[in-house]
TrEMBL record:
GO terms for biological process: iron ion transport. Coiled coil: none annotated. Keywords: ATP-binding, Cell membrane, Ion transport, Iron, Iron transport, Membrane, Nucleotide-binding, Transport. It is a peripheral membrane protein. Belongs to the ABC transporter superfamily. This is Iron ABC transporter ATP-binding protein. InterPro entries: AAA+_ATPase (IPR003593), ABC_transporter-like_ATP-bd (IPR003439), ABC_transporter-like_CS (IPR017871), P-loop_NTPase (IPR027417), Siderophore_ABC-ATPase (IPR051535). Gene3D superfamilies: P-loop containing nucleotide triphosphate hydrolases (3.40.50.300). It is found in: Cell membrane. Residues 2-235 form the ABC transporter domain. GO terms for molecular function: ATP binding; ATP hydrolysis activity. It comes from Marivivens niveibacter. One of its GO terms (cellular component) is plasma membrane.
């Protein structure tokens, strides 16, 4: 379990998060949802220790994230940010191989190579393995970044808007792979704007608004009309389609 208590974050002298109190259940998929600018990426970056807190604590299990040595944290938690920039003259294989760095320290074993090849295949990138990143489409590059993150092999995986640039088939593929990771016991947190996807795949939802948590709980507690209408200040309809919640604005 990840526990966030009274978290406040200020960026460039602007208060961004205040009094964030939330828990992320271990071994489940948690969707982080909410309007643009609500603070989702900032919360994810704070959990990944990429953004410092002004106040409050974040614990993995019962250990404060500030008490982890960098390598220990990298073996425990992997994060893909929304704005990841990568060197254009890297191949897909090189990029995904970087995910193994906390294990290999640059000396990849056969097991590291096998893990890289496996995740490249799961992401349907095998035909692009030796292509430079700047020759890929936006969606192919996005899948390579997700593959790098999963190659790290951590118990906790944080993905900020992983479905950016993905067509509906590849979005489904990524969500299925994320679910497979959860079935293996991993804790996956994804920032998602597609509430239908969040409602279909996640176990748990944290809804943010104006820098704090507006609602949280199992999917049914958050992906419903009153909560979403309030969250987005817009009428939202949730249509049941064979057990799937289709979320639309009306
Ligand atoms: N370096 C910064 N300095 C000042 N304000 C910032 C900085 N970075 C982000 N912000 C502001 O913090 C707020 C929260 O940003 P954040 O990226 O966490 O939101 P988000 O919920 O992920 O949004 P989106 O859905 O648009 O990606 C926004 O109002 C943003 O403009």
């Amino acid at each position: 379990m990840i526990t966030v208590r009274n978290l406040s974050v200020t960026l460039d002298r602007t208060p961004i998060l205040h009094d964030v109190d939330t828990t992320v259940p271990a071994g489940q998929m948690t969707a982080l949802v909410g309007p643009n600018g609500a603070g989702k990426s900032t919360l994810l970056a704070a959990i990944g220790r990429l953004t410092a807190a002004d106040a409050g604590t974040i614990e993995i299990g019962d250990k404060n994230i500030s008490d982890f040595a960098p390598r220990d944290l990298a073996l425990r938690l992997a994060i893909m940010r929304q704005d990841t920039h990568v060197a254009p003259r890297l191949t897909v294989r090189d990029l995904v191989g970087f995910g193994r760095y906390p294990h290999s320290h640059g000396r990849m074993t056969q097991q590291d190579h096998n893990i890289v090849d496996d995740i490249i295949a799961r992401m349907e990138l095998t035909e692009f393995t030796d292509r430079f990143l700047d020759t890929l489409s936006g969606g192919q590059r996005q899948r390579a970044l997700i593959a790098m993150t999963l190659a790290q092999g951590t118990d906790i995986v944080l993905l900020d808007e992983p479905l950016n640039n993905l067509d509906l088939v590849h979005a489904r593929r990524v969500m299925k792979i994320a679910r497979e990771e959860v079935e293996k016991g991993k804790t996956v947190i994804l920032v998602l704007h597609d509430l239908t996807v969040a409602g279909s795949y996640a176990d748990h939802v944290i809804a943010m608004k104006n820098g704090t948590v507006a609602a949280q709980g199992p999917v049914d507690d958050v992906i419903n009309e009153p909560v979403l209408t309030d969250l987005y200040d817009t009428p939202v309809q949730v249509i049941d389609a064979n057990g799937h919640k289709i979320v639309v604005t009306v």
